[in-house]
Amino acid sequence: MIWHPYTSQLGADPPLKIVSATGEFLYDETGKDYVDGISSWWVSIHGHNHPKLVQALKDQVDQLDHVLLAGFTHPPALELAHELLQFTNWKFRKVVYSDNGSTALEIMLKIAWQYFRNRGDTKRKVFIKFSSSYHGDTIGAMSVGGDSVFNRVFQSLLFSTKDFVTPACHDCPVGKNPRTCSEDCLDELEAYLSLHSDEVVGVVLEPLIAGAGGMLFHKPEVLKKLRDLTQRYGILLLLDEVFTGFGRTGRKFAYETADIVPDMIALAKGLTAGILPFAVTLVREEVYKEFLSEEPLKTLYHGHTMTGYPSGCAVALASLKIFQEENRLDDVKRVELGLEEGWSRIRAEFPEKLRNVRVLGAVGVGELETGQEKPGYIYSYAREFKRICLENGVILRPLGNVIYVTPPYTISKESLDRIFGAIRIALSSYHVPS
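Structure tokens predicted for Adenosylmethionine-8-amino-7-oxononanoate aminotransferase:
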């Protein structure tokens, strides 16, 4: 009956039926518990079913279920907008509500496109993207994503972009030492902008970590150089913080690590911590002011039925409050130490089977050596790896040969140990293809 996402329709393993959850644990219909090592697609930053989030949802539904946001407003939407802008230290001016990360990214692209047209600049038609990026599965989000199994069949539907190599400091694509380089991976982009910047709308990037594209890490200096380039050439810096936002990299937002401010950011996932679908796009003053007009054609004509719906706003407000009151960034530091320790032991035990082990905040990654077999999202051992982990009470979902751990920030040491125990068992059964 269900067409499950990212799942082959023939030969796939039957889906595991989950019936309840609490903290870092999911429970199947037999009562067996599983440690959620990926925060259920990176959303459950406070653990599952946090009582304050559940109560916020119940309270709001009792008060107001829904009202459209076109021509109307309501207290949770007003309060959340204020709290989000304050949470980002008032670096942004406006909050645009939507319902998931892909649509938040689409909104960012549309605002960027219209921003220049509202200024009378119709020549700009190019978005800069990076080769291993992933921003979602809607048409615009796929257009600014790298070539992959996610979008390859849809190429003729996508709008034109200019592609550059994804920065990856753990495995530099241009062969430099990241400790001594001058962000040489951006040299080609800089040369392109020097000749064609008047055709470019903006640069779209996942800051610090390219997530679904392979958990590729880059250093903060890459962000700083990109901000310098976009400001020098008068184009927009558009950051997708759907994955990295709300503490995942160790700061509230990844861009803070580089001490920069982008022109817009897209946020979702940790915003409501898995309770409800919800997303926002935050817009700086310099961009928003180009929409301040009584001319109808300078209006942003974009909305969704559930734009800024009351229960989503209420849960997001509760999540922001929990994030601050329960000191989630301290939790991330604790998790980071646990991930470093766990991956260090695994790397020492299986040096011939792993490469490019790396940790940042509540993200820990190791790549399987693939020998003669091509790495990537559909790497053959990923399915077996996932199955072995499930047998041992752990939910992990490798990106092909890339094993990643992105647990709830509240995870216990015992549960982290269980995760690495399952990884150890899976690696013991793994043979590098010859």
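The chain has a mean pLDDT of 96.
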